[in-house]
Amino acid sequence: MTKQSLKLTTLALLLQLAGAAFAAPLSSGLDMPGFDPAVRAQDDLFRAANGGWMKATEIPADKSEYGAFIQLRDLSDKRVRAIVDELATQQHPSGSVAQKVGAFYASFMNTEAIDKAGLAPVKPLLAEIDAIKSLKELAAWQGRMQGRLETPVQLWVMGDFKEPTVNRALTWQGGLGLPDRDYYLKKDDERMGKARAAYAQYLTLLATQAGEAKPAEAADRVMALEQRIAEAHWDKVDNRNMVKIYNPMTPAELAKAAPGFDWAGFMAAARLAGQDRLSISQPSAVSAIAKLYGELPLADWKLYFKLHLLDATADLLPKPLREARFAFRGTALTGATEEKPRWQKAIADLNGALGEAVGQLYVAKHFPPAYKARMQELVGNLLASYKESIDGLAWMTPATKAQAQDKLAKYMVKIGYPDVWRDYSKLDVRAGDALGNALRSGRFEWERVAAKAGKKVDRAEWGMTPQTVNAYYNPTLNEIVFPAAILQPPFFDMGADDAVNYGAIGAVIGHEISHGFDDQGSQFDGDGVLRNWWTEADRKAFEAVGAKLVEQYAAYEPIAGKKLNGKLTLGENIADLSGLQIAYKAYLRSLGGKPAATIDGFSGQQRFFMGWSQAWREKVREQRSLQLLTTDPHSPPEFRANGAAINHDGFHEAFGTKEGDKMFKPTGERIRIW
């Protein structure tokens, strides 16, 4: 599927294959009422395509952001809900997947029973914490909580960076109640100060619920502990450095490098005993956190875990805790003024617990096999265009080009849904036990992950469910993955002409392909091995171009006084720019040398860029913007739309930009990578 011998089939041919259903003239695929006729694309492509929609649209009270992605996620959730509702009308054998799906969802939805139970469901875990008498016991408890609760040192299992065919355990820093270390460290940031104050208030309420005699003092102790953890954490930019975060150690080497924590007991309780080695992603952070266990009172650690446990389970506990969690994690951190509907929260948890079981039912209703075949052909076209683009790079030497082509030829493509579905037969789901179901499903998933350590990587496994509106690139598998739920308008519309589809889903495909060649993915070869396959001169040339992109995006200011972190968003910005360039080449290729028709007053090339911009339609509340600017490697949608287009020769040609236009950029200053 990834070989370049794939026959090139244009989207126009795919539409013909759809038959009589598409015999009518194609629409442009553009949401014309959503345009702002007062804004020229030459000045602001994003608002030209989306300004009318932005003026007419209010962010729903239960959301912190709203746009194309969120609308599709809502649609996916509604479809899953319909599936669950249909299952509820039928009788199912005890222990069957259908029975488990129904019981999980119904238990989550039964807030009357949850309120009546009070704190009884969580009291056994709180009692476990109270019973801890030593740091050794605390380490083992944290191991048992993997999959159920985020701990200061998290564990995961995936393909080893240097031996990607074998799964290895790795550590990752964690344990903060606020979104990122910056919320603790940037004391002069007023917005983050408000978030800290809201968090202190929330911790006080949690401490009250936990029965602490002095809840405000308890909150202060937990905040002080988290401050120490935050000071140890690496920042988001360092965590993007694949070479820097790969630090293989034997268990003995880890114990020596990070004394003060019972690593053997922790790993054994996490079902990871007997590992010959693991990767320590942030060595200095792990060492500092291990040291904290000996420096801070055991009573403070127990208090910290009690409050974090109540926070993590609050949605499945009585109303006062649910409301308090939303007041902090919803309103204070994201700006939402109403909770997401309970049914939608239930669907989110259900997808996490039984995601592929639900996904199998989802694709049976909403993703016919023909869709998958058509998408495979489109991906093949994009890969072929990428191959040609690599051949034409002026800044790369033949030796590095050969390595890049080898990597591209080895891409694995996954579309729609997995070929083999996950087995949930051993997951225990009980009617009327909402919290127990969540805890058991979290541990069930963790034990599935832990069991992979030291074993061969399963290349057929998926990291997203089919009903997820997203896509991804995995460097150790050298794969691109497109779940079924993203293959819908405005990204992919079988009733629209080629231009908009190439500008939307084509650019998404190109984006994921390009992740294999961004600042992170380019450090892995075609077999998924972390190694430098570049000549020194080529790598320097690539980094020099990347530095220009960092500078461009670092100048954008999404909210007053808060600019984009160009280094944090570099990989996604490279993928946006490269993906748009490749999709445009693929679109021109699909025309076969013939001019595209003018539809709705736009040429084919103009519709391509309007389709690209329309796909990034979104409005975001300020609180959520602050969170995303701090933690998200993606640029805000407005800057994704404009930031890539301004560097694209095709955009300037399509709209005839000239000096004085706000989107104009001289030819010699445009950034070109792949």
Summarize the structure.
InterPro entries: MetalloPept_cat_dom_sf, Peptidase_M13, Peptidase_M13_C, Peptidase_M13_dom_2, Peptidase_M13_N. By secondary structure, the chain is mainly α.
Verbal overview:
The protein is mainly alpha-helical and 674 residues long. The chain has 2 domains: 27-57 and 367-418 and 462-669, Collagenase (Catalytic Domain); 132-316, Orthogonal Bundle (Neutral endopeptidase, domain 2), CATH 1.10.1380.10. It contains 26 helices and 9 strands. It has helices at 11-17, 45-56, 68-88, 97-109, 111-117, 123-131, 135-144, 182-185, 190-209, 215-232, 251-257, 263-269, 283-295, 298-313, 319-334, 342-366, 369-391, 398-409, 434-450, 498-515, 536-554, 570-590, 604-615, 622-631, 637-645, 649-655, and strands at 65-67, 153-159, 167-173, 248-249, 278-280, 412-416, 472-474, 479-483, 618-620. Strand 2 and strand 3 (167-173) form a beta hairpin. The two termini are 22 Å apart. Residues 1-24 have low confidence and may be disordered.
Give a topology summary.
Elements: H1 11-17, H2 45-56, E1 65-67, H3 68-88, H4 97-109, H5 111-117, H6 123-131, H7 135-144, E2 153-159, E3 167-173, H8 182-185, H9 190-209, H10 215-232, E4 248-249, H11 251-257, H12 263-269, E5 278-280, H13 283-295, H14 298-313, H15 319-334, H16 342-366, H17 369-391, H18 398-409, E6 412-416, H19 434-450, E7 472-474, E8 479-483, H20 498-515, H21 536-554, H22 570-590, H23 604-615, E9 618-620, H24 622-631, H25 637-645, H26 649-655
Parallel strand pairs: 3-5, 6-8
Antiparallel strand pairs: 1-9, 2-3, 4-5, 7-8
Helix pairs in contact: 2-23, 3-4, 3-16, 4-16, 4-19, 6-14, 7-12, 9-10, 9-15, 10-14, 15-24, 16-19, 17-18, 17-20, 17-22, 20-22, 20-23, 22-25, 23-25
